[in-house]
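Case study: D-amino peptidase.
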Amino acid sequence: MKIYISADIEGVGGVARHEHSRVDGREYPLARRLMTNEVNAAIRGAFGAGALGVTVADSHNVGLNLLPEELDERARLVMGSPRPLSMMHGIDESFAAAFFVGYHAMGGTMNASIVHTFTGRLQEVRLNGVKVGEIGLNAALAGHFGVPVTFVAGDLAACREAERLLPGVRTLAVKEAIGAYAAVCEHPARCCRAIEAAAREAVANPPKVEPLVFAGEVELTVRCTTASGADRAGMIPRARRLDDLTVSYVGADVVEAFQAFNTMSCLVELVPFI
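Here is what the predicted structure looks like once written out:
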């Protein structure tokens, strides 16, 4: 059994503000260590329950957050960017399950840590009309390959979002947000012990979670924060401008739709905040 772990930073215990999550933030060195520790806990749990292989995707920012020399040496690390499947690059049919560690809720969620969906310049993202954040987008990519997401660790709002979208998924809340930039956190050591135990249980007794599958053509709809952002997102061939802020794209499958989304999110990042 092989396990795929996608790791973000905003949902890590002990992380509450952009000073933690931005690479130039004064608390970033601490945050990347906390992130590495939580990922190691998930790796230990997976191997402890009999996993034969673990691949970890460093999935925050440009993918250079996890400390490679401190990562459990049994795991393979996907790092750097850009990557065609971004936070899920390397996922395929050979994996039995995917874990999400350090995850946060979708943009626009109240009482959720540092919320966004890939970028703060998007208000809303939908696949075939279903509102999704990073949990949903990445679960859909895993589902394309028949891989279920069986364990999600992050803030309480992320866990609730995962439970709504992926019935039966095992979740672990390491903190509860107080607005977007404050949180009540468990001690990092407690977080890691709990993640290790939950990951071990998710491998030993896999929850009955169906892969999130969007079959056939998939319509991506993004709502930008500004008309200028929608101007840029709409530059992709075959994209359609629906209104001042909204752009849609129909992909042959969820992978193509996601790659269009990935391109749009890069384009809207070029729009300055005003």
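For the exam, be able to explain this: The chain has a mean pLDDT of 98.
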